């Protein structure tokens, strides 16, 4: 069976890349090792976690803010099996949607593990051991990633768990420990903290969400502690964990070498993700993965050292983000078709779906200082936003960083209500190399959360914000 393109993996990068290939007239096939399409994102990542975040936010508001709104409820409780069932239904709807899109675009799909025989021949090993082969002019590796495992902290998938198992807990734990103060740990920790679980976060670094602007991590930690009662053990190194019955005991030590012991019903290990390349047989075509992170090296066109073999998403350099993988899938498809697409990696936004949400694009203040770039900054707090006051969501701020001489926007960082959506305005502006004054002079509807971005841009433009 001969194809123009064979895609290994059906996550956001793989399925989007396959669809774009088909749109461009390329005969395309997708190989997926699991029974459903969508990869980590749709099955055990972005989509199910957002479903639980949404459900838990409804419960938290019903328990803590509805009375202020004049809504009185009695006997409020969590039906955890129903919450999980709704999450599963959301996942099923999304994965079924990809099946429909593959049929619509006449994309062939194969279930099994895809591995290289040579650069143009892919062998598919099915669950029962049977095999078949496909030939392709081009191959796109989009095999994604898996949770990183600490060698001294074995995952039993019962009490010491990864993000995958955390999506299917059937009761509200009394206590939970989260190892890792990054996006995944904080989002899942938020889910259970909203439902009433006492959540403790252990982080090796001095800041949570450490890759983002420092001010965002500081504010998020403050709000999560205040609103959800989450505890944070910063600058702590986990040294081990033991399980006895239904209790997990985690040991860690601080910078001084002092030890702490924390007990909980569950311990989520969320210390990052590692590129998943097992079973690809990359050795057969001469590709060696990088020692750190198991990543596949690619050139500026996302092509590996083997002509016609491309790699995208979590298996290559850069942030492990679904939308990055999608853009890379489209990029490679268009390159194969002879077009000249582009990706500006500096303008791929990052988002944390806690509440308040966190979103960021472009350079952070720390990066600008390190680069020696002269810049000006303007910020605006949501407590001064009329829309935020009306919704009782006044935590957080928006910060705009602009070049000191040209006024071009270099970075936008925000924490607050619905900033996961608001950040798109900043991305559009920066793609067109807008100045802070450009945003400041655009009329924004009132009252909206987006006005905070305008006010921050005004603050960066001769310090002329109106409402502070």
Explain what the structure shows.
This protein has 468 residues and is of the alpha/beta class. The chain has 3 domains: 218 residues, 3-Layer(bba) Sandwich (FAD/NAD(P)-binding domain), CATH 3.50.50; 112 residues, FAD/NAD(P)-binding domain, CATH 3.50.50.60; 105 residues, Enolase-like, domain 1. It is 32% helix and 25% strand. It is built from 13 helices and 22 strands. Strands 1, 2, 3, 4, 5, 6 and 17 form a 7-stranded mixed beta sheet that branches. Helix 1 runs parallel beside helix 8 and helix 3 runs antiparallel to helix 4.
Termini gap: 66 Å
Shape annotation? globular
Structural class estimated from helices and strands: alpha/beta
| Count of helical regions | 13
Kindly give the count of domains: 3
CATH architecture of the largest domain: 3-Layer(bba) Sandwich
Topology:
Elements: E1 2-8, H1 12-23, E2 28-32, H2 39-44, H3 46-64, H4 80-104, E3 108-111, E4 113-118, E5 121-125, E6 131-141, E7 145-147, E8 160-161, H5 163-166, E9 175-179, H6 183-194, E10 198-202, H7 214-228, E11 231-233, E12 237-244, E13 247-253, E14 259-264, E15 266-269, E16 273-275, E17 309-311, H8 322-336, E18 350-352, E19 357-362, H9 365-371, E20 375-381, H10 386-391, E21 397-403, E22 409-416, H11 419-431, H12 436-440, H13 451-460
Parallel strand pairs: 1-2, 1-6, 2-3, 6-17, 8-15, 9-10, 9-15, 10-11
Antiparallel strand pairs: 4-5, 5-6, 7-16, 12-13, 13-14, 18-19, 19-22, 20-21, 21-22
Helix pairs in contact: 1-8, 3-4, 3-6
